[in-house]
Amino acid sequence: MRFSQFKQGLLVAAGLLTAGTSATCHADNCYRALFPCSSAAALATATAYCATVTAGGTTATNYPTRATAACGTAPARYISACACGQTCTTTSTAPACPTATPPVNGDFECGGLAPWTLQVPDPSASGAVTQPGNTGSFAFEVDLHAAPANTELGVSARIISAPFAVVPNAAYTLTFWTFFDKIDNGFIGVMVNGQPIWTVDAGDLGFGAFHKSTVPVTPTTSTVTLTFEFLFGSVSQAVDRIDSISFVKN
Q1: Which UniProt keywords apply (predicted)?
Q2: Most exposed: 45, 47, 64, 149, by fewest CB within 10 Å?
C-alpha cells in the first residue's frame, strides 16, 4: 500500500521525507509498537498522530512515546507504519439472546428489557432487568418501595411483549416462572392481546424461589401480545420477578 503522490509530495515539502523516499507500508516492529491491538487508547493516539503526518504534513516529530523504542527518531519509520494504517480487528461479545420460541427476549438475556415495553403507573414502584434469573443470569423484577400510590386499577407496573406471529385457532402453551419474596406480595396478572386470562400469587405456588406456571391458550388472531401486570395490594415493600417466558404451539 502506498501514499498518493500528492500526499508524499506534502511530506517531502515539509521535510519529513527526502525526495525519492517511498512511504511504503512495512508491518515491522515499529508498526506493531505504534498500533498495539491490545490497547484502544494507544490505537487512538497512533491514529491521531498519523492523521497529522498524512493529511497536515506539518510534523512527524511528536512521536507516540510507546513506539519510540521500536521506531527510533527517523520520520520514515513512522511514515511507513502510518502507510499501513490501523488494521486491528475487534470481536463482539454480545449477550446470548434466545429467540427460538416467542416472545423475543422471554428469558431477559438480551442485555436489557427490549423489545418489551415497561409501564410503571405507580410512583412507589420500579422495574428493571436484574439478577439472578431462573435458569439464566437475568430476570425482570418489580420492586415496591412504599405502599402503592396512584396505581392504575391496582397495577403498579406492567411489561408488554412485542407482537409475535402465531397460527390462529391453534392450541398453545404459555409458560413462565415467577418469584415472590413474601407470601403476601399481591399477584401477577397475565393478559393475551389485552384480555386477562390468568393470575398467580405466592399463595398458589410459594415464595422465596422461582415457580413454574403453564397456561393453555388458543389465540384467535395471527399475532399475540403478552402483558404481565404486577399488583401488590396493601403491602408496603415487595420484590416480584418473572422469567423464562415462552409461548409454544402444542
Answers
A1: Signal
A2: 149
The answer as to whether 127 is a domain residue is: yes
pTM of the model: 0.62
State the average pLDDT for the chain: 82
**Is 245 in the same domain as 121?**
yes
Count the domains in the chain.
2
CB 79 within 8 A of CB 49: no
Model confidence pLDDT, tens digit, residues 232-250: 998 999 999 999 999 999 9
pLDDT tens-digit map of 120-162: 999 999 999 999 999 889 999 999 999 998 888 899 999 999 9
C-alpha cell at 39: 490497547
Q: Is residue 94 part of a domain?
A: no
Domain that holds residue 30: 5-84
What is the per-residue pLDDT for 8?
Answer: 43
Q: State whether 79 and 173 are in the same domain.
A: no
Instruction: Report yes or no on 100 lying in a domain.
Output: no
Structural contact between residues 249 and 172, judged by C-beta atoms closer than 8 angstroms = yes
